[in-house]
Amino acid sequence: MKVSKTHFKAIHILLIACMLTACSSLKNRKIEKNLTERLNLNGFDNHFTGFMVYAPESQDTLMALNAHKFFTPASNTKIFTLYTALKILGDSIPSLRYYALKDTVYFQGTGYPGSLHPAFNDSSIVQFLQSFQNLVYVPANFPEGRFGPGWAWEDFDSAFSPERSSLPLYGNVLTYIRHSEPEVVPEYFTDSISTVALPGRRLEHKNTFYFNPGGRDSLTVPFKTGIKLTADLLEIAIKKPITIKEQFPEGKKTLLYGNTPADSLYKQLMEESDNFIAEQLLLTSSAALTDTLSSRLARDFVLDTYLSELEDHPRWVDGSGLSRYNLFTPASMIHVLEKLYKEFGTDRILTIFPAGGKEGTLEDWYGTTGGPYVFAKSGTLGNTYCLSGYMITSSGRFLLFSFMNNHFMESSSQLKPRIEVILEAMRDSY
């Protein structure tokens, strides 16, 4: 059979493409073998490790080690929380649900975390409520408890573990600032500070706090939330009395939106690994969907809709990752990382994620003198360290990775240098 010049040229191009693909695959196999050897040589063989590297432009999985095994993710859970908030809340986050009737306003919380928060100073709900003569607080339907399932309850007085609530104020924490005359924020608790030493910084079921008068550092301690306390704190801020009632009058309710830019909350969530903001964003997402504030409702909605195609259905029980009940796979992390950057843009997502060597929990790790090459979320619990996010390689490739480690016996500070070696090898190899 005679082959035309056109057909011959097409076959020639196809053969070259196959040869290039084969060379590329061979190179990737060599890199994968090299990285696997590094994992074994660098002490990753005595605990449970999952590692997946994915090139989204070519849709190639470059490496997969236990990629579909389930791990305790710690704060890598916040990657799913961020996706939930971006999909449901977007750029406008509601702070109150209200019904106005002449000079009276009935209002309830939406779980919005920014109100009077020390990092944001968002007083928008105070300014709004001050414009009414009569204020009626209607507590929201919040069926879940102050803590998430599987949390360490003994951490009740730790700064990283504020209680969840439907109308949080001041980040649900007391801040004790040491001056010649100590400052207490909110001032409401000034008379609640004990001069008698307690077992911790606060009584578990009462807002009685203890700060060592000889200490040097300012401290942040969660306070015990409650409906009456919320009304009291607002009364002081607004300088008007507040009545508490169980329900709204008949009529259409309206949403008030907070003044804190959404991306400021999302950046605080990821960069500082803020557990309080994580939990409250799920509650606010739920409030945007229904009249009920339920973390579970928001999680189930996202898994059933936006993430219904997930191959490895996770066990997802909170927004922060404080719970050891959470179980995710590296492949699931990669799936959501890909959706984040495709749906919201690389520039925005890399701004929200911590940059290696520069910011937040990655400030001391995964950086270079030439600038960050890793943009990722870390997750740390006892015997657990996970890191999932994005990498820009030396050749300019954009990669997604998830590196999950469970059940190691050393400290995470001993593990991180070995992880850094692997990530540097990835950066310089691809």
Automatic annotation (TrEMBL):
UniProt keyword Protease present: yes
GO biological process: peptidoglycan metabolic process; proteolysis
Superkingdom to which the source organism belongs: Bacteria
Pfam families from the UniProt entry: Peptidase_S13
Gene Ontology MF terms: serine-type carboxypeptidase activity
Signal peptide (residue range): 1-24
Keywords (A to Z) from UniProt: Carboxypeptidase, Hydrolase, Protease, Signal
UniProt-listed InterPro entries: Beta-lactam/transpept-like (IPR012338), Peptidase_S13 (IPR000667)
Keyword Transferase: no
Record-stated family: Belongs to the peptidase S13 family.
Protein's name according to its UniProt entry: D-alanyl-D-alanine carboxypeptidase
Organism, as annotated: Muriicola soli
